[in-house]
Amino acid sequence: MRHFLIAACIALPMGVHAEEVSIALDWTLNTNHVGLIVARDRGLYEAAGLEVDILPYSDSASTALLAAGVTDFAYMTSLGFMSARAAGADITALWATMQHETGRVVYNSDNPEITRPADLSGKTYAGFGSAWEHALISTMIRTDGGEPSYDTVTLGTGAYEALANGAVDFTLEVATWEGVNSTLLGRRQSSFAYEDYGIPDQQNGYIGTTGALLAEQPDLVARFMEATHEGYAWAAEHPQEAAEILIAAGDFPNPALVRGSMQAIVDGNYLRAGDVPVGTIDPETFETMARFLFDSGVLKGPDGATLDAPAELSGWVDQSWRGE
Prior knowledge:
By secondary structure, the protein is an alpha/beta fold. The protein is built from 13 helices and ten strands. The protein is globular, with a radius of gyration of 20 Å.
């Protein structure tokens, strides 16, 4: 593995211009993206000879922008990446930010009718419009011995206010963001962890590129990813300093949410899990979740038809930039 810290100390020769690359975000700026901001604002990309444009979230999915060649790299959800790849997009995962699942089912603690996932049957769910949600919730209810029959209203981010005021019974949230926000707002909410009820643990927050860029400019990919790795590794070691860098770079109405989120990420061992290098994609974890999504009928082909899992999934991931 190349030692990027040493390389980063070498200044660019006079007259050499930094190469411009871009990365599209999967959502509005948040703590999942902290390593990208740290790498940019602490000069790690510059030291690697790169000028990185972090594209703001738009109505177009980051996977679509990447597959269309609009951006060189993309920050992607696990479901977004696997769905696009299954549908034929020539994109490859290089990195996973969160080493464990940060999502969970959440409900109001003072709702006496909900004490276990089976109780969600017959209730109203505030959803976000993805096929993954039904597969996830149905599996959890069924695993707990219930009948997966419930009403769904698609509300997007409005789901959290709807839950808080009792208009719906449950929704999904990211523990390290919406969960932290609910605590700051004083909401009494409880949750069920996916992996306790039949859902494989998964990594999330993939960074990927196209197969073409990987084949044609492996050095560029390696320099970008090594600098990105250093950004996230530094953030893992200095979470509150990283939070302040992120706050300065964005427009956050409540900076306490960013600080609390970074602390939750550290406390939950999401960014760094033991001695595993930050950002490492675990092949077994990746394949287990991919096959769950295939078996659940979530992943579709280019024609929209449900796919069977391919015999080989290793080509979906490439970590050669690590020197492996």
